[in-house]
Protein backbone atom coordinates (compact mmCIF):
# COMPACT_ATOMS: atom_id res chain seq x y z
CA UNK A 1 0.00 0.00 0.00
CA UNK A 2 2.82 2.30 0.85
CA UNK A 3 4.48 1.59 -2.55
CA UNK A 4 1.25 2.47 -4.33
CA UNK A 5 1.06 5.82 -2.49
CA UNK A 6 4.64 6.63 -3.51
CA UNK A 7 3.87 5.91 -7.18
CA UNK A 8 0.78 8.13 -7.11
CA UNK A 9 2.77 10.97 -5.56
CA UNK A 10 5.39 10.63 -8.33
CA UNK A 11 2.72 10.86 -11.04
CA UNK A 12 1.19 13.95 -9.41
CA UNK A 13 4.63 15.61 -9.19
CA UNK A 14 5.31 14.91 -12.87
CA UNK A 15 1.95 16.36 -13.94
CA UNK A 16 2.59 19.42 -11.82
CA UNK A 17 5.95 19.99 -13.51
CA UNK A 18 4.38 19.69 -17.01
CA UNK A 19 1.66 22.17 -16.06
CA UNK A 20 4.22 24.65 -14.75
CA UNK A 21 6.28 24.31 -17.97
CA UNK A 22 3.19 25.04 -20.10
CA UNK A 23 2.38 28.13 -18.05
CA UNK A 24 5.97 29.45 -18.35
CA UNK A 25 6.01 28.79 -22.13
CA UNK A 26 2.69 30.52 -22.60
CA UNK A 27 3.89 33.49 -20.57
CA UNK A 28 7.07 33.65 -22.65
CA UNK A 29 5.11 33.65 -25.92
CA UNK A 30 2.80 36.30 -24.58
CA UNK A 31 5.75 38.45 -23.50
CA UNK A 32 7.43 38.00 -26.90
CA UNK A 33 4.22 39.02 -28.64
CA UNK A 34 3.97 42.12 -26.51
CA UNK A 35 7.57 43.28 -26.96
CA UNK A 36 8.12 42.27 -30.70
CA UNK A 37 4.93 42.63 -32.69
CA UNK A 38 5.03 40.97 -36.17
CA UNK A 39 6.03 43.19 -39.09
CA UNK A 40 3.03 44.37 -41.07
CA UNK A 41 3.07 43.40 -44.80
CA UNK A 42 3.92 46.24 -47.17
CA UNK A 43 1.10 47.60 -49.24
CA UNK A 44 1.28 46.76 -52.95
CA UNK A 45 1.38 50.40 -54.03
CA UNK A 46 3.31 51.77 -51.06
CA UNK A 47 5.17 55.00 -51.88
CA UNK A 48 8.94 54.65 -52.05
CA UNK A 49 10.74 57.42 -50.23
CA UNK A 50 14.02 57.61 -52.18
CA UNK A 51 14.79 61.20 -51.33
CA UNK A 52 14.31 62.46 -54.92
CA UNK A 53 12.06 65.34 -55.89
CA UNK A 54 10.63 66.48 -59.22
CA UNK A 55 13.30 69.19 -59.44
CA UNK A 56 15.98 66.49 -59.58
CA UNK A 57 14.58 65.34 -62.94
CA UNK A 58 14.14 68.76 -64.58
CA UNK A 59 17.29 70.48 -63.40
CA UNK A 60 18.84 70.17 -66.88
CA UNK A 61 22.16 68.93 -65.51
CA UNK A 62 23.53 66.05 -67.64
CA UNK A 63 24.04 62.70 -65.97
CA UNK A 64 27.63 61.48 -65.50
CA UNK A 65 28.75 59.22 -68.37
CA UNK A 66 29.05 56.28 -65.98
CA UNK A 67 25.32 56.51 -65.24
CA UNK A 68 24.11 56.80 -68.84
CA UNK A 69 22.25 53.85 -70.37
CA UNK A 70 23.13 53.04 -74.01
CA UNK A 71 20.60 50.91 -75.87
CA UNK A 72 21.60 48.44 -78.60
CA UNK A 73 24.77 46.47 -79.36
CA UNK A 74 27.58 48.99 -79.68
CA UNK A 75 30.33 46.36 -79.99
CA UNK A 76 29.24 45.38 -83.52
CA UNK A 77 29.15 47.47 -86.70
CA UNK A 78 25.61 48.45 -87.66
CA UNK A 79 23.97 46.35 -90.41
CA UNK A 80 23.94 48.47 -93.59
CA UNK A 81 20.78 48.80 -95.68
CA UNK A 82 22.20 46.85 -98.64
CA UNK A 83 22.37 43.71 -96.45
CA UNK A 84 18.72 43.79 -95.41
CA UNK A 85 16.37 41.43 -97.23
CA UNK A 86 12.61 40.71 -97.28
CA UNK A 87 10.91 37.88 -95.39
CA UNK A 88 10.59 34.84 -97.71
CA UNK A 89 7.08 34.02 -98.92
CA UNK A 90 5.07 33.01 -101.99
CA UNK A 91 3.55 29.95 -103.62
CA UNK A 92 6.79 28.52 -104.98
CA UNK A 93 8.52 28.98 -101.63
CA UNK A 94 5.71 27.10 -99.87
CA UNK A 95 5.63 24.25 -102.41
CA UNK A 96 9.38 23.66 -102.31
CA UNK A 97 9.32 23.63 -98.51
CA UNK A 98 6.44 21.12 -98.60
CA UNK A 99 8.31 18.84 -101.03
CA UNK A 100 11.43 18.89 -98.86
CA UNK A 101 9.55 18.11 -95.64
CA UNK A 102 7.56 15.33 -97.30
CA UNK A 103 10.74 13.60 -98.48
CA UNK A 104 12.61 14.31 -95.22
CA UNK A 105 15.30 16.34 -96.97
CA UNK A 106 17.38 19.17 -95.50
CA UNK A 107 18.67 22.30 -97.19
CA UNK A 108 21.65 24.49 -96.42
CA UNK A 109 19.36 27.42 -97.28
CA UNK A 110 17.45 26.84 -94.02
CA UNK A 111 20.15 25.31 -91.82
CA UNK A 112 22.73 28.03 -92.57
CA UNK A 113 20.13 30.83 -92.51
CA UNK A 114 20.98 32.00 -96.03
CA UNK A 115 19.70 35.54 -96.74
CA UNK A 116 18.86 34.63 -100.35
CA UNK A 117 16.33 31.89 -99.56
CA UNK A 118 13.35 34.05 -100.60
CA UNK A 119 14.94 34.87 -103.97
CA UNK A 120 16.05 31.31 -104.72
CA UNK A 121 12.85 29.57 -103.62
CA UNK A 122 10.44 32.29 -104.69
CA UNK A 123 10.74 32.16 -108.50
CA UNK A 124 8.73 30.06 -110.94
CA UNK A 125 8.99 26.36 -110.23
CA UNK A 126 11.16 25.73 -113.28
CA UNK A 127 13.56 28.44 -112.13
CA UNK A 128 13.40 28.25 -108.34
CA UNK A 129 16.04 26.07 -106.69
CA UNK A 130 17.06 24.87 -103.25
CA UNK A 131 20.51 23.68 -102.23
CA UNK A 132 19.91 20.23 -100.76
CA UNK A 133 22.14 19.27 -97.84
CA UNK A 134 23.01 15.58 -97.81
CA UNK A 135 23.79 13.25 -94.88
CA UNK A 136 21.38 14.89 -92.41
CA UNK A 137 21.35 18.20 -90.58
CA UNK A 138 24.12 17.52 -88.04
CA UNK A 139 27.82 18.11 -88.71
CA UNK A 140 30.82 16.59 -86.93
CA UNK A 141 32.65 19.92 -87.06
CA UNK A 142 32.11 23.23 -85.31
CA UNK A 143 33.18 26.13 -87.54
CA UNK A 144 32.75 29.49 -85.82
CA UNK A 145 30.80 31.05 -88.69
CA UNK A 146 28.30 28.25 -89.30
CA UNK A 147 24.91 27.75 -87.62
CA UNK A 148 24.44 24.07 -88.57
CA UNK A 149 24.04 21.71 -85.59
CA UNK A 150 27.12 19.80 -84.48
CA UNK A 151 27.76 16.45 -82.80
CA UNK A 152 30.62 13.96 -82.49
CA UNK A 153 28.21 11.14 -83.32
CA UNK A 154 25.38 12.24 -85.66
CA UNK A 155 22.52 9.85 -86.53
CA UNK A 156 23.20 7.16 -89.16
CA UNK A 157 22.83 8.04 -92.83
CA UNK A 158 19.38 7.74 -94.40
CA UNK A 159 19.73 5.02 -97.04
CA UNK A 160 16.70 6.44 -98.88
CA UNK A 161 18.14 9.95 -99.16
CA UNK A 162 19.82 9.50 -102.60
CA UNK A 163 16.55 8.27 -104.12
CA UNK A 164 14.44 10.91 -102.36
CA UNK A 165 16.81 13.67 -103.49
CA UNK A 166 16.62 12.54 -107.10
CA UNK A 167 12.81 12.41 -106.83
CA UNK A 168 12.56 15.95 -105.45
CA UNK A 169 14.82 17.34 -108.16
CA UNK A 170 12.88 15.59 -110.93
CA UNK A 171 9.68 17.23 -109.63
CA UNK A 172 11.15 20.71 -109.89
CA UNK A 173 12.17 20.34 -113.52
CA UNK A 174 15.44 22.21 -113.09
CA UNK A 175 18.39 22.46 -115.43
CA UNK A 176 20.96 23.03 -112.64
CA UNK A 177 21.02 21.75 -109.07
CA UNK A 178 23.41 22.29 -106.18
CA UNK A 179 24.09 19.64 -103.55
CA UNK A 180 26.03 20.25 -100.39
CA UNK A 181 26.62 18.21 -97.27
CA UNK A 182 27.67 18.29 -93.66
CA UNK A 183 31.06 16.92 -92.65
CA UNK A 184 30.90 13.32 -91.46
CA UNK A 185 34.31 12.58 -89.98
CA UNK A 186 32.71 9.67 -88.11
CA UNK A 187 32.32 7.69 -91.35
CA UNK A 188 35.14 5.64 -92.86
CA UNK A 189 34.82 7.36 -96.26
CA UNK A 190 33.58 10.71 -94.94
CA UNK A 191 30.30 10.10 -96.77
CA UNK A 192 31.87 10.04 -100.25
CA UNK A 193 29.95 6.95 -101.41
CA UNK A 194 26.66 8.46 -100.25
CA UNK A 195 27.31 11.68 -102.20
CA UNK A 196 28.42 9.78 -105.32
CA UNK A 197 25.33 7.55 -105.20
CA UNK A 198 23.05 10.59 -104.95
CA UNK A 199 24.67 12.20 -108.00
CA UNK A 200 24.37 8.94 -109.94
CA UNK A 201 20.64 8.61 -109.18
CA UNK A 202 19.98 12.22 -110.16
CA UNK A 203 21.69 11.63 -113.50
CA UNK A 204 19.62 8.48 -114.02
CA UNK A 205 16.35 10.33 -113.50
CA UNK A 206 17.40 13.50 -115.34
CA UNK A 207 20.43 12.92 -117.61
CA UNK A 208 20.48 16.51 -118.89
CA UNK A 209 20.53 18.18 -115.49
CA UNK A 210 23.79 19.83 -114.42
CA UNK A 211 24.92 18.90 -110.91
CA UNK A 212 27.17 20.94 -108.63
CA UNK A 213 28.36 19.33 -105.39
CA UNK A 214 29.82 21.37 -102.54
CA UNK A 215 31.83 18.72 -100.74
CA UNK A 216 33.68 18.23 -97.43
CA UNK A 217 37.46 17.92 -97.47
CA UNK A 218 37.38 14.23 -96.44
CA UNK A 219 40.18 15.00 -93.98
CA UNK A 220 42.34 12.02 -92.97
CA UNK A 221 40.50 9.84 -95.48
CA UNK A 222 42.00 8.23 -98.56
CA UNK A 223 42.28 10.54 -101.59
CA UNK A 224 40.40 7.99 -103.62
CA UNK A 225 37.18 9.23 -101.99
CA UNK A 226 37.74 12.70 -103.46
CA UNK A 227 38.20 11.02 -106.83
CA UNK A 228 35.06 8.92 -106.30
CA UNK A 229 32.90 12.05 -105.99
CA UNK A 230 34.74 13.96 -108.72
CA UNK A 231 34.18 11.10 -111.20
CA UNK A 232 30.59 10.28 -110.21
CA UNK A 233 29.02 12.29 -113.03
CA UNK A 234 28.88 15.73 -111.42
CA UNK A 235 29.68 18.80 -113.50
CA UNK A 236 31.01 21.23 -110.87
CA UNK A 237 33.14 20.14 -107.91
CA UNK A 238 32.97 22.84 -105.21
CA UNK A 239 34.89 23.03 -101.98
CA UNK A 240 35.17 26.24 -99.97
CA UNK A 241 38.39 27.64 -98.54
CA UNK A 242 36.11 30.13 -96.67
CA UNK A 243 38.83 32.66 -95.80
CA UNK A 244 42.52 33.49 -96.13
CA UNK A 245 45.14 31.19 -94.60
CA UNK A 246 45.94 33.34 -91.55
CA UNK A 247 42.27 33.59 -90.51
CA UNK A 248 41.50 29.90 -91.07
CA UNK A 249 42.24 28.71 -87.49
CA UNK A 250 39.91 31.37 -86.07
CA UNK A 251 37.10 30.85 -88.59
CA UNK A 252 37.01 27.14 -89.45
CA UNK A 253 37.12 23.97 -87.38
CA UNK A 254 40.63 22.96 -86.27
CA UNK A 255 40.49 19.91 -88.58
CA UNK A 256 40.29 22.16 -91.65
CA UNK A 257 43.16 24.16 -93.09
CA UNK A 258 43.82 26.24 -96.19
CA UNK A 259 46.49 24.03 -97.75
CA UNK A 260 44.33 20.95 -97.27
CA UNK A 261 41.44 22.61 -99.12
CA UNK A 262 43.73 23.57 -102.00
CA UNK A 263 44.80 19.94 -102.28
CA UNK A 264 41.16 18.77 -102.42
CA UNK A 265 40.44 21.15 -105.32
CA UNK A 266 43.62 20.17 -107.16
CA UNK A 267 43.12 16.42 -106.80
CA UNK A 268 39.43 16.58 -107.76
CA UNK A 269 40.19 18.07 -111.17
CA UNK A 270 43.14 15.78 -111.82
CA UNK A 271 41.31 12.59 -110.85
CA UNK A 272 38.28 13.50 -112.97
CA UNK A 273 40.52 14.13 -115.98
CA UNK A 274 42.26 10.79 -115.38
CA UNK A 275 38.83 9.14 -115.66
CA UNK A 276 38.01 10.96 -118.88
CA UNK A 277 35.68 13.53 -117.29
CA UNK A 278 35.91 17.30 -117.54
CA UNK A 279 34.67 19.21 -114.49
CA UNK A 280 34.80 22.77 -113.21
CA UNK A 281 36.19 23.46 -109.73
CA UNK A 282 34.77 26.19 -107.55
CA UNK A 283 35.40 27.81 -104.16
CA UNK A 284 34.05 30.63 -102.01
CA UNK A 285 35.61 33.28 -99.76
CA UNK A 286 33.88 35.29 -97.01
CA UNK A 287 34.90 38.91 -96.49
CA UNK A 288 34.56 40.78 -93.22
CA UNK A 289 36.28 38.28 -90.90
CA UNK A 290 39.56 40.17 -90.46
CA UNK A 291 41.35 39.42 -93.75
CA UNK A 292 43.91 41.82 -95.23
CA UNK A 293 44.16 42.90 -98.88
CA UNK A 294 47.50 41.24 -99.61
CA UNK A 295 46.27 38.02 -98.00
CA UNK A 296 43.35 37.94 -100.43
CA UNK A 297 45.68 38.46 -103.37
CA UNK A 298 47.82 35.56 -102.13
CA UNK A 299 44.78 33.30 -101.68
CA UNK A 300 43.59 34.01 -105.24
CA UNK A 301 47.05 33.32 -106.71
CA UNK A 302 47.22 29.97 -104.94
CA UNK A 303 43.70 29.03 -106.09
CA UNK A 304 44.62 29.71 -109.69
CA UNK A 305 47.81 27.67 -109.24
CA UNK A 306 45.63 24.57 -108.69
CA UNK A 307 43.37 25.51 -111.64
CA UNK A 308 40.25 26.56 -109.74
CA UNK A 309 37.77 27.88 -112.33
CA UNK A 310 35.15 29.75 -110.29
CA UNK A 311 35.38 31.87 -107.15
CA UNK A 312 32.68 33.75 -105.25
CA UNK A 313 33.01 36.52 -102.67
CA UNK A 314 30.31 37.26 -100.07
CA UNK A 315 29.86 39.12 -96.80
CA UNK A 316 30.12 37.13 -93.58
CA UNK A 317 26.96 37.63 -91.54
CA UNK A 318 26.84 36.45 -87.95
CA UNK A 319 24.01 33.86 -87.68
CA UNK A 320 23.59 34.08 -83.88
CA UNK A 321 25.25 35.75 -80.89
CA UNK A 322 27.04 32.48 -80.15
CA UNK A 323 29.03 32.74 -83.38
CA UNK A 324 32.06 34.71 -84.48
CA UNK A 325 31.58 38.49 -84.60
CA UNK A 326 31.64 40.44 -87.86
CA UNK A 327 34.91 42.34 -88.19
CA UNK A 328 33.47 44.82 -90.69
CA UNK A 329 30.76 45.21 -93.33
CA UNK A 330 32.35 45.47 -96.76
CA UNK A 331 30.98 48.08 -99.16
CA UNK A 332 29.65 46.98 -102.59
CA UNK A 333 32.39 48.97 -104.33
CA UNK A 334 35.04 46.77 -102.68
CA UNK A 335 33.25 43.62 -103.84
CA UNK A 336 33.30 45.03 -107.37
CA UNK A 337 37.05 45.56 -107.02
CA UNK A 338 37.70 41.93 -106.05
CA UNK A 339 35.58 40.72 -108.96
CA UNK A 340 37.81 42.72 -111.32
CA UNK A 341 41.00 41.46 -109.64
CA UNK A 342 39.94 37.78 -109.81
CA UNK A 343 38.82 38.04 -113.44
CA UNK A 344 42.19 39.59 -114.27
CA UNK A 345 43.89 36.50 -112.78
CA UNK A 346 42.09 34.21 -115.21
CA UNK A 347 39.15 32.78 -113.26
CA UNK A 348 36.44 31.58 -115.64
CA UNK A 349 33.69 33.22 -113.60
CA UNK A 350 33.59 35.44 -110.50
CA UNK A 351 30.52 36.34 -108.43
CA UNK A 352 31.16 39.07 -105.87
CA UNK A 353 28.69 40.96 -103.73
CA UNK A 354 27.46 41.41 -100.13
CA UNK A 355 24.69 38.79 -100.46
CA UNK A 356 26.52 36.40 -102.79
CA UNK A 357 26.84 32.89 -101.42
CA UNK A 358 28.56 29.77 -102.72
CA UNK A 359 25.22 28.62 -104.16
CA UNK A 360 24.36 31.72 -106.15
CA UNK A 361 21.68 31.78 -108.87
CA UNK A 362 23.41 34.21 -111.22
CA UNK A 363 26.60 32.18 -111.01
CA UNK A 364 24.73 28.96 -111.64
CA UNK A 365 23.12 30.48 -114.73
CA UNK A 366 26.52 31.46 -116.13
CA UNK A 367 28.10 28.09 -115.34
CA UNK A 368 25.13 26.33 -116.92
CA UNK A 369 25.71 28.20 -120.17
CA UNK A 370 29.44 27.42 -120.09
CA UNK A 371 28.83 23.71 -119.48
CA UNK A 372 26.12 23.45 -122.12
CA UNK A 373 28.46 25.11 -124.61
CA UNK A 374 31.19 22.64 -123.72
CA UNK A 375 28.75 19.75 -124.12
CA UNK A 376 27.76 20.99 -127.56
CA UNK A 377 31.39 21.35 -128.61
CA UNK A 378 32.21 17.87 -127.27
CA UNK A 379 29.25 16.39 -129.15
CA UNK A 380 30.29 18.17 -132.34
CA UNK A 381 33.86 16.88 -131.97
CA UNK A 382 32.63 13.34 -131.31
CA UNK A 383 30.39 13.48 -134.39
CA UNK A 384 33.29 14.68 -136.52
CA UNK A 385 35.53 11.88 -135.26
CA UNK A 386 32.81 9.32 -135.94
CA UNK A 387 32.33 10.63 -139.49
CA UNK A 388 36.06 10.44 -140.20
CA UNK A 389 36.19 6.91 -138.78
CA UNK A 390 33.30 5.77 -141.00
CA UNK A 391 34.79 7.44 -144.05
CA UNK A 392 38.17 5.74 -143.61
CA UNK A 393 37.00 2.13 -144.48
CA UNK A 394 35.17 3.44 -147.55
CA UNK A 395 38.32 5.13 -148.84
CA UNK A 396 40.35 1.94 -148.31
CA UNK A 397 37.82 -0.20 -150.18
CA UNK A 398 37.86 2.28 -153.06
Automatic annotation (TrEMBL):
It catalyses: [[Fe-S] cluster scaffold protein carrying a second [4Fe-4S](2+) cluster] + N(6)-octanoyl-L-lysyl-[protein] + 2 oxidized [2Fe-2S]-[ferredoxin] + 2 S-adenosyl-L-methionine + 4 H(+) = [[Fe-S] cluster scaffold protein] + N(6)-[(R)-dihydrolipoyl]-L-lysyl-[protein] + 4 Fe(3+) + 2 hydrogen sulfide + 2 5'-deoxyadenosine + 2 L-methionine + 2 reduced [2Fe-2S]-[ferredoxin]. PROSITE patterns: RADICAL_SAM. SMART domains: Elp3. One of its GO terms (molecular function) is lipoate synthase activity. GO terms for biological process: protein lipoylation. [4Fe-4S] cluster 2 binds at residues 139, 143, 146. PANTHER family: LIPOYL SYNTHASE, LIPOYL SYNTHASE, MITOCHONDRIAL. This is Lipoyl synthase, mitochondrial.
Amino acid sequence: MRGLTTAVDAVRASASRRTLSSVVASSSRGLATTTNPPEQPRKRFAKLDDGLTFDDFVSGEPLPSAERVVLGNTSQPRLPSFLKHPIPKGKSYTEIKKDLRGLKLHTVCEEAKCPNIGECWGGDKGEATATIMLMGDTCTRGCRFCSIKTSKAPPPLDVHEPENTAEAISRWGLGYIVLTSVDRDDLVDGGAKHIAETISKIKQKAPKILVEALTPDFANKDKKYIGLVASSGLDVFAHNVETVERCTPFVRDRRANFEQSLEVLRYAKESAAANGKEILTKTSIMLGVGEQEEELHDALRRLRAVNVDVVTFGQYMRPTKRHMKVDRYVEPVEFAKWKEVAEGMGFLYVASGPLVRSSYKAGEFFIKNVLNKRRAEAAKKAAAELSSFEAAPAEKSA
